[in-house]
Automatic annotation (TrEMBL):
EC number: 4.4.1.13
Coiled coil: none
A GO molecular function held by the record: cysteine-S-conjugate beta-lyase activity
Protein known as: cysteine-S-conjugate beta-lyase
Annotated signal peptide: none
Matching PANTHER family: CYSTATHIONINE BETA-LYASE-RELATED (PTHR43525:SF2), PROTEIN MALY (PTHR43525)
First-level EC class: lyase
UniProt-listed CDD domains: AAT_like (cd00609)
Organism: Streptomyces melanosporofaciens
Cofactor: pyridoxal 5'-phosphate
Length: 407
């Protein structure tokens, strides 16, 4: 993990302007109907929900426009599943060297639906699920609602950053008889990218206890060099046979509203169980969702390359500015994603940090108890915005938190 000791007073370098990513008009942002900007009033800057502020790739916009203007939005002719099945497999091979089988890919509307369907088919109420904490709040809420007890596997914060507690994983799985491991890699919210050694340690535990691994890899294409994503199912034949991989173009290309996710089933029995369900019981993806995802995966890589340059700049900007202005705040450069996980516990706030920063700094962040046990005192900041807006967000956060260091 990358961690630079605080150097109070060291100025943060001014960001380079990147056309298309830094030309975000404030009126345009505030007039967007999406939840990120629509849910806050005119005096507040939103940096909470995991949506980017950037326009979608031109290739995606053009493909969607063509489909609406000239295309056929009637029933699609996909007798063997959507074209995404083969396209997903090709992308896994070209990017990661993983030979995923198109015949084992199925489409769903979004990540949460995938998780809920898998838990419904593979487990019963009362079955324990091992899950990294902190974690994506809708995952934890799903486990609670479906009465699948969550067995927290904490990521440990050290002087070098965040690390998986393998002893806690092995102990928790053994004591609670976990049937499933919900793995989020790259990790939301800490931004960790698991190394091969770490993944193999997890795979060994899963093998010893014969666990199903549900691997959320939706942030995989947002890994920052030199860190490299490794699909869990690519580790070994045993890992492949027990892993269900969930991913989508939505995070890496800012297309959440298209509601299109793909799931690769490793376990034969689980795939057969899924295919034995009524064909439309769990919904189907739309033509536009498939069109947009195809365009992103086929033609969006140049846009994504530029995006990663901007996000790399922004993650360093967050790190440098907060290191300078709020040295008591602990933060490590995320190895993936556009989310920063900020430890404000040393500031000894006496109220909810999210509400405090909103009131004092006019910035809406996320964080706290919904992310799981021991997440109080942490804030999640979304830095996928323009350089100017990000600096205003950091000004607001610093205005709220910096005075607390003097107490």
């Amino acid at each position: 993990m990358t961690h630079t000791p605080p150097v109070p007073g060291a100025p943060a370098a001014e960001p380079r302007h990147v056309p298309g990513f830094d030309d975000l008009g404030r009126d345009w942002l505030r007039n967007r109907p999406g939840v990120k900007w629509h849910r806050v009033d005119q005096t507040v800057l939103p940096a909470w929900v995991a949506d980017m502020d950037y326009p979608m790739p031109r290739a995606v916009a053009e493909a969607l426009h063509e489909a609406v203007t000239y295309g056929d939005l009637g029933y699609p002719d996909w007798p063997d599943g959507s074209p995404l099945r083969r396209l997903f497999a090709e992308r896994m091979t070209s990017r990661y060297g993983w030979e995923a089988a198109p015949s084992r890919v199925r489409e769903q509307t979004d990540l949460i639906q995938c998780l809920q369907l898998l838990l419904h088919l593979a487990t019963s109420p009362g079955d324990a699920v091992a899950v990294q904490t902190p974690n994506y709040p809708p995952f934890l809420a799903t486990l609670k609602t479906m009465r699948r007890p969550a067995v927290p596997v904490p990521l440990i914060q050290t002087d070098q950053g965040w690390h998986m507690d393998f002893a806690a994983l092995a102990d928790g799985v053994a004591r609670h008889g976990c049937k499933v491991l919900l793995l989020v890699n790259p990790h939301n919210p800490t931004g960790r990218v698991m190394t091969r050694d770490e993944l193999e340690e997890i795979a060994a535990i899963a093998r010893r206890h014969d666990m199903l691994v549900i691997s959320d890899e939706i942030h995989s294409e947002l890994s920052h060099a030199p860190h490299r994503h490794i699909p869990f199912a690519s580790l070994s034949p045993d890992a492949a046979a027990r892993t269900v991989t969930i991913t989508s173009a939505t995070k890496a290309f800012n297309l959440a509203g298209l509601r299109c996710t793909v799931t690769h089933y490793g376990p034969d029995r689980l795939l057969a169980t899924r295919d034995a369900q009524p064909p439309d019981l769990y919904g189907t993806v739309s033509t536009l969702g498939v069109v947009g995802t195809q365009a992103a995966w086929r033609h969006g890589d140049p846009w994504q390359k530029e995006l990663l340059t901007v996000l790399d700049r922004n993650r360093h900007r967050v790190h440098d500015v907060l290191r300078d202005r709020v040295p008591a705040l602990r933060h490590w450069l995320p190895e993936a994603t556009y989310l920063a996980w900020l430890d404000v516990r040393r500031l000894r706030l006496t109220e909810d940090p999210v509400q405090y920063v909103l009131r004092q700094g006019k910035v809406l962040l996320d964080g706290g108890e919904p992310f799981g046990p021991e997440s109080d005192g942490y804030l999640r900041l979304n830095f996928a915005t323009s350089a100017q807006v990000l600096d205003e967000i950091l000004d607001g956060v610093s205005t709220a938190l910096a005075p607390l260091q003097e107490r």
